[in-house]
Design a protein that fits this description.
There is one protein chain. The chain is mainly alpha-helical and 322 residues long. The protein contains 11 helices and 7 strands. The strands form 3 sheets. It has a 3-stranded mixed sheet. It has a two-stranded antiparallel sheet with strand order 2-3. A two-stranded antiparallel ribbon has the order 4-5. The longest helix has 24 residues, at 270-293. It starts with 41 loop residues before the first helix and ends with a strand. Residues 1-21, 292-322 are annotated as: Disordered. Residues 76-253 form the Putative plant transposon protein domain. Pfam families: Transposase_32. This is Envelope-like.
């Protein structure tokens, strides 16, 4: 039998992997996390196991200096809502959602929904959420009766528009500050991956925030998470992962190394918002000019006024899959 050749090594003495020995090199095994769920929750665990996350975003408050929006954020103590997210533990978040107790165990108890993660009770209530974000207890947004007033508030002064007959506002048509506020709202307040069109229900919240109404954010976020836990079918995104991760950590739930420690989401910044919308308008004008040169009717051009403008692609909520 021919003598076996000595494996080639690098300068540091490590064996070099090639086609002849690739199958012999031990590969590190990724750590696994087993959900600690009851039999009743196994079906829910299947639903949540493949969900990705809409991650909370940090707002560059310095870029908002000397703006109305900056004054509103500081006056209403929303700065914690705008701060940099903590480490996120997606598997812990999934277990929290799977084990979410949908039954009120004690009407008079402050934390009526007793949810456990790895056998540890995680306090969760509107008051707990409000305390985490450091926001005062506010009130529900009043109904809007005059949508013309909303239109004057959301559109740029140099491009005023009436309230659209379709009741749908384009994200890219709003003022710079409103587009940044909407991007922030879409990741940190009322999570969604759909920014292009804004319907009246979301516009009500956006307008009330823009005018400085002090929401009861604790109650608002609590209701969104409870609704998601109650009706997960047809949905596919984990939300408020930063909040849930921190609440579990404070309850001394055992944490593995975060899958998202090194994930950096783009910061919401007013300067970048202005730059991105400038690019959108420049590209739209280039398409219109190209259509004219080809002898096409501008109204039939894909860049016409009524087409959804996919602006702020840099500011879409980050969807992380692990």
């Amino acid at each position: 039998m021919a003598p076996q050749s000595k494996p080639s090594t690098s300068e540091k003495g490590k064996e070099i992997v090639d086609e002849s020995n690739a199958h012999k090199i031990a590969r590190p095994v990724a750590p696994t996390y087993e959900l600690n769920v009851s039999g009743e929750a196994e079906q829910r665990a299947t639903i949540f196991s493949s969900w990705s996350a809409i991650v909370e975003r940090e707002v560059d408050l310095d870029s908002l200096n000397h703006t109305t929006l900056s004054a509103i954020i500081h006056d209403n103590r929303w700065t914690r809502l705008c701060s940099k997210p903590h480490s996120i533990y997606l598997e812990v978040v999934r277990e929290f959602m799977v084990n979410f107790n949908l039954t009120i165990t004690d009407e008079g108890k402050e934390h009526a929904y007793e949810t456990h993660v790895q056998g540890v009770w995680v306090p969760f209530s509107p008051d707990v959420i409000g305390h985490f974000y450091g926001v005062p207890e506010g009130s529900d947004a009043p109904a809007i009766t005059n949508w013309s007033t909303v239109a004057r508030a959301i559109y740029p002064d140099e491009h005023p528009k009436p309230w659209p007959h379709s009741n749908v506002v384009r994200h890219g048509h709003m003022s710079d500050e409103l587009r940044l506020l909407h991007s922030f709202m879409a990741s940190n307040i009322t999570p969604t991956t759909h920014l292009i069109e804004i319907y009246p229900a979301r516009m009500t919240i956006l307008y009330q925030m823009e005018t400085g109404h002090n929401f009861n954010f604790g109650e608002h976020i609590f209701n969104i998470i409870t609704d998601l836990a109650s009706n997960p079918k047809g949905r596919s995104k984990l939300i408020f992962s930063d909040l849930i991760s921190v609440l579990c950590k404070r309850a001394q739930v055992s944490m593995h190394s975060s899958e998202m420690d090194k994930v950096k989401t783009p910061i919401l910044c007013l300067r970048s918002v202005r730059h991105s919308i400038g690019q959108v308008h420049r590209h739209a004008n280039e398409r219109r000019l190209a259509a004219e040169l080809e002898g096409k009717d501008e109204d039939n051009s894909p860049a016409n006024e009524d087409e959804p403008i996919e602006s702020d692609t840099l500011f879409m909520p980050q969807r992380i899959q692990r």
